[in-house]
Amino acid sequence: MIESDILILGKGPAGIQAAIYAKRANISPIVIGKDYGMCVKARTVENFYGTETINGTELVKNGITQAENLGIEVVSTEVVSVSFEEEGYLVKTLDKTYLAKAFLFASGAHRNVARIRNINKYEGKGVSYCAVCDAFFYKNKTVAVLGHSDYAANEVSELVEICEKVYVLTNGEIINTQFDERAIIIEDKVLEVTGDTKVESVKFENHELEVSGIFVALGTASSTDLAQKIGVAIERDRILVNESMETNIPGLYAAGDCTPGYQQIAKAIGDGCVAGMNMAQYVRKLKRNKR
What we know:
globular; alpha/beta; single chain; seven-stranded mixed β-sheet
């Protein structure tokens, strides 16, 4: 297990800026991110302070280089789960486990949408986005996980311990991970979710599968997906924070596009600045109390 004062999910402007402020405050951060985030879609940035024009990817790369030159570790991998333990925040990636005193969600607001007929109709009525939160309600029942990657595999690992039968619905996508051998994989295209007042079945082109619940785990887990699993307050797919960028859970912060407000690079950097300084203060206080 790798221990750190602060762990930051997201190596875009918000996450890197927070890491820089924490590091300069003599607090040790680790930044984890799978990619550069939404900034890569900005071919030209012309409204950023002190810069007439710059490519979005170049801007992010410059920030990462700046962080690494300060001695900040920036790891390129995917986070599949975040949980709160007595010792701090336990964060699992594809191949490692981290423990941090404070944690920052800063990986943007992207959320994969399931384009399946009627699936949104059953949200809260059999369609869930959190195995850790809702698996208990499906004890000894049959459920399905919609997904084909590591995020889906992590959800399956939670469900197979509680549910009678777990199906993996790849919806025609190619599997790029290893699923628990107890799960049953169906690679057919999903057409529709059906049921009276709650989920009762999933329809494919040539057959139908009876299930009590569907857990959506498409692509990579976003900040909102992971935050929801540990009880963070969320509204309209955004993580709610106070003026210190802290969530309703002590030591857990969020910054950038995953929080309410304008989705702009300038705001993300401002959020990261505030989060970084306040996380440093939070960690210092924890260390003083343990002396």
